[in-house]
Amino acid sequence: MNRPSKRNLSQIDALSRIYRLYDDYIDSFSHACRKYCADCCTTNVTLTTLEARYIHAFLGEKQRAALSGGMHSRIQTPRFQPAMSTNCHARLCAEGKAPPEEHVPADPGTCPLLEAEACTIYPVRPFACRCMLSTAVCRHTGEARIDEFTMSVNNLFLQFIEHLDPSGAFGNFIDVWRCLDSEDADCPTVPNQSVTVLMIPPEHREKIHPLLNTLNHILSRVE
Ligand code: SF4
Ligand code: SF4
After folding, report:
1. Which ligand lies nearest to the CA atom of residue 110 in the structure?
2. SS3 letters for 68-105?
3. Helix pair 148-163, 86-94: axis angle to 10 deg
4. What does the alpha-carbon distance between residue 148 and residue 127 come to, in Å, rounded to a whole number?
5. Which end of the chain is more exposed for a tag (fewer CB within 10 A), N or C?
6. Residue 65, helix vs strand vs coil
7. Atom of ligand 2 at shortest distance to CA of 118?
8. Whether 157 contacts 22, CB under 8 Å
9. In this structure, which ligand is nearest to the CA of 136?
10. Which residue of 39, 47, 55, 113 sits with most ligand 2 atoms within 8 Å of its CB, as the best mutation to test the pocket?
11. Is 201 helix (H, G, I), strand (E, B) or coil?
12. Separation of alpha carbons 122 and 207, rounded Å
């Protein structure tokens, strides 16, 4: 009898496990985020092409067409279009080089996937949406409040999700989705990069180790 292979996860399966790992992690601490609290649902959301393919695979044809229509309707909307990926940023900092300046619009549009203050793709939403967790209601504080350890955890997951998709790209949700819809679309995205250095400060390394081990284990099983 053949022994089951250890390297038996597709990229999509691995991404699903990474999302589940994060969702389990956030279950363990309290935050102010609730359904219908959606001030954070803007056109500034970013993701990798693998994350867009994950959403694409989950949706039916009609939902995909609606999503494409919504994205297309926001082409002129101000939005964050990153100049570099997370792993590129980490590498440049480690090399002592200044990362390119990023411009984040202070007044972006509402995410086209928000309907009646609820996310229409909630189970498969990108990691950038999952990790937007505030300890105080943003409407009261004016911005999300995320503690430093959770920021380190978020960066760790962002770095691994990018690493999982080495031939893919990173960009604004609207642009990445348009690239997926049409290879000819002129969409500003940046190439993904592998992890060369992790953005974990020394004081968080011990506590983050179990999550790091699990992420490494998931990646070691990708075909
Ligand atoms: S991040 Fe802020 S706006 Fe978004 S759900 Fe949490 S509290 Fe609400
Ligand atoms: S994809 Fe969903 S969770 Fe993310 S910003 Fe849009 S509506 Fe909000």
Report:
1. 2
2. HHHHHCCCCCCCCCCCCCHHHHHHHHHCCCCCCCCCCC
3. 110
4. 18
5. N
6. helix
7. 7
8. yes
9. 1
10. 113
11. coil
12. 29
Residue 88 alpha carbon to ligand 2 centre in Å? 25
pLDDT digits (tens, 9 = 90+) for 56-113: 999 999 999 999 999 999 999 999 999 999 999 999 999 999 999 999 998 899 999 9
**Cα 33 to averaged position of ligand 1 atoms, centre (Å):** 5
pTM of the model: 0.93
114 CA → ligand 2 middle, Å: 6
How far, in Å, CA of 18 to CA of 44, rounded? 22
Distance from C-alpha of 6 to C-alpha of 45, rounded to nearest angstrom: 34
Percent of the chain with pLDDT over 90: 80
Q: How far apart are CA 60 and CA 71, in angstroms?
A: 16
Report the residue among 120, 125, 130 best suited for mutation to probe ligand 2: largest number of ligand atoms under 8 A from its CB: 125
- The DSSP annotation for 117-170 comes to TEETTGGG--HHHHT---SS-HHHHSS----HHHHHHHHHHHHHHHHT-TT-EE
Angle between helices 173-181 and 61-72 (to 10 degrees): 120
Ligand closest to Cα of 43 equals 2
Indicate whether residue 132 lines ligand 1 (CB < 6 A): yes
Residue with tokens 């099983």: 221
111 CB near ligand 2 (under 6 Å): yes
Give the pLDDT score at 71.
Answer: 92
